[in-house]
Please model this.
Amino acid sequence: MTLKFLSRQEELMLLSIWKLDTNAYGVTIRQNVTDLTGKYWSIGAVYDVLDRLTRKGLVSTVVGDPVKARGGKSKRFYRITKSGFKALEEVRTLQRKAWVDLPEPSFEKK
Amino acid sequence: MTVKKYSSTYFAIKFLKIIASAKDCDYAIGDLEETYEYIAENEGPKKANRWFWREALKSLPGFVKNGVYRRSAMVRNYFKIAFRNIIRNKVFALINILGLAVGMACFILITLWIQDELSYDKFHTNKDNLYMLTIIHPDDVVDRNVPYALAPRLADEFPEFSQFTRIYEYGLLATCTFKYQPKSGTPVMFYEDNVNFVDSSFFSMFSFPFVFGDPETAFQNPNSLVITDKMANKYFGHDDPVGKIMTLNNSDDFVVSGVIHIPSNSHLQLDFLTPLPDRLTDDWNWRDPSYVLLNKNVSLTEVRQKISAALSKHSPYPFADTLKVDLLPITKVHLNFGRRTYVYIFSMIAAFILLIACINYMNLATACSANRAREVGLRKVMGAKRPELIQQFLGESILMSVFGLGISLILVKMGIPLLNGLTSKQLTFSLLGSHSMYLYLFGLIFVVGLVSGAYPAFFLSANRPADTLKSSLHFKSKRSSFRVVTVVGQFGISILLIACTAVVFQQLKYVQNRPLGLKTDFVIKVPINRMLLGRLPSYRDQLLQNPHILNVTAGQSVPYNEDYKTGGVEWDGKDPDLSPNFRYTISFFDYVETFEMELVKGRSFQTGSTADANNFVINEEAAKYMGMEDPIGQRLSFWGSEGTIIGVVKNYHHVSLHREIMPHVFSVNPRNYGSLRFIFIKISPENVPDSLKYIRETTMTFAPTFPYEYAFLDQGVEDLYQAEQKLGKIFSTFAFLAIFISCLGIFGLASFTAERRTKEIGIRKVLGASLSHIVMLLSKEFSRWILFANLIAWPIGWYAMHKWLQNFAYRSSLNPLLFLLAGMLSLFIAALPVGYQAIKAAIADPIDSLRYE
Model:
């Protein structure tokens, strides 16, 4: 059996993009996930996931104008597509269903 | 931007850009720079730099993967287009690939040969400290034969010398037989001429691998004998011969103490080696090769300076003052004595032939540029930049050279036996197990690809899209001047090679036809041995009983290659400073008569006369050298025995025509008969088999315990010019290949021109042009090119061949007709493909050529 659900990283990334709205590009997304997880994310790691999302068609990209502060390079902004939202919805439903009737997880062993 | 120029971060960015030039990595790099700046502002530039480098290295794999993937899409398209082009222009592609294949095959074969030439004597462990002692004559001639006393004296005098060995080439002085008597069965016995005495340090200096035995103990006893594996096979089959006894000349026993293998790339090829008794340390007269081993870390220039005057210091001969002693590194010995020029010549030929093949590609690719112009235009409109287009076209030429290499490997496989036949080497070619070979082949692909593709790539990528796309009808093929230059170059090289071939063969013919001054036909050569030597007069008389045997004599060497130098000739009024320019012949009676030499003055030795033992015959050159107007009756002393000159023979060629005829003295003194090596028997042309049988039987009865061998003397004359014969063959082969590849190219160009002018030809025909007129029209241009090529090739060829002919003391004059002939030949050969295309175009029906619009 295969699950075609989003991975945790992908989910995290999509949520960040959603949250950042019109300002979602490499630097801000990386900042956001770093803050969220408290872990170090390298730029490569961020783009790895972003590229995967792009290929799956869950996000779309828009190229902005060149920015001087970036050595004359332009930003690539990310937007969640319809299927992106659908995928997020799916994992959330799954999450909810799976947690139904379960108490808060406790760290004490029974 | 805070990233400073030439800071480490700056380079990191540059580096990443190169790796990830695909567009989409830009964003990631942009992110990197932005974050870098943020960190630099908040936490300091040091931390930022560290972070930057870590990031850069971490994301490298992703960048590379991405970059390769994006780029490969375009490369795939390049390949597709390249293949489509090959299929569309099958003839041109075939010409290119075939030409490149032949050119590369030649190049690889010649490289193999050169590699072998350069590998000589490099297998010795001591190769860096091993030197051959040489003597440099005042005329800069390097002599490898040095006096015996020299090496021991130098070793005594200078601490820089660690060891020395001399090679006493005994087998060249006296005939030798070796016999092995197995416990049961018949003895194995052969004549051998490669028998050498060497100093016992020989095997600690040279590292010849031992098949049997041990280098340490090989020369423990004075009668030890080390033989090569070849000789071991000849006498002992596959048994271990160590400890077996071999008898020299049926009298001296030697114990085989070792079997060595001498690689073919050793300039020393010695079959039998036995220790030289510790003598000859005062012999400043006799000369053979000597080798020395220098201590490590010794300054070579200093040693050379020190020993330079050694000969004038120690040698008792006054002429030695003019001679310089020198050292020649062992790895250079092979090249120094004759081969260097050939290595240069062949490297040049290899490069030329490859160049000719590359030129074919250049010409055809630029000629067809009209066909590619629209593709280039379209690519440019779609955003291709010039470097990308250059990349594409270079890729195509490299692809072509890959195909060419594939075919050339097959050609090399086929050509190796031919090359081995021409050069008498055992070269092999295999792709397995040699990394350097792969490296070399890859290098070859790239060099050929770049050389042939560079010009077309720049030329084609320069097209302006507006010009090419607007209208194809008015598109002109520009810059044909480049093509003229290259075609002229191609044919220039071909003509050069043809002319050189012709001159080489002319000189060979001259050498073969020049009267030597002596006759060698119907002379049988039989090696002498102790038993024959002892009864020479009666043996002669017995042979002469047969009416078909005309003359019998004996000598030290074959008369057309006899080069025994001596300084031991004295005459009245001799200048004591004269160097030993005399050559001498020790012979039995009737030497002059047997070889039918011409006497200009006096008489020859009287057969059997004891009085003549102290008399001499000289040649004209000797009379001139000694300044004697009338030499008959003059006194002369040779090796201490005084006598008178009784006759003068006309100059004859006692060595190959490479060298001058030298003053020569003949003696029949029985005291020196020990150095006779061959019996020469002149027979009449009738009843040859009977005479041979008679000679055999007589020899066997006189020397029953020695083997019998014979050879016709004139067979050896040609061997003197083996090197030139091979050169001639190699030149003609390469000349053929060069003209073949050039013709392929010109065939392609002609077909292209004819194709482009189809309509013009159609119109001309409609207006009444005749067939011959059109053929003339089309071939006129090519003929002009080739005539021009001649003008360039002639002076170069003249100069080169003039130099080459200097190798011969006696040479044919350079015949201008040969050059003219080479030019005519090239014109004729080139006329075939051009004429074919021209006639094809001329007989085409104008309806077909004019209708197609």
Chain B touches chain A at residues 1, 3, 13, 24, 26-35, 37-38, 54-55, 58-59, 61-63, 66 (CB under 8 Å).
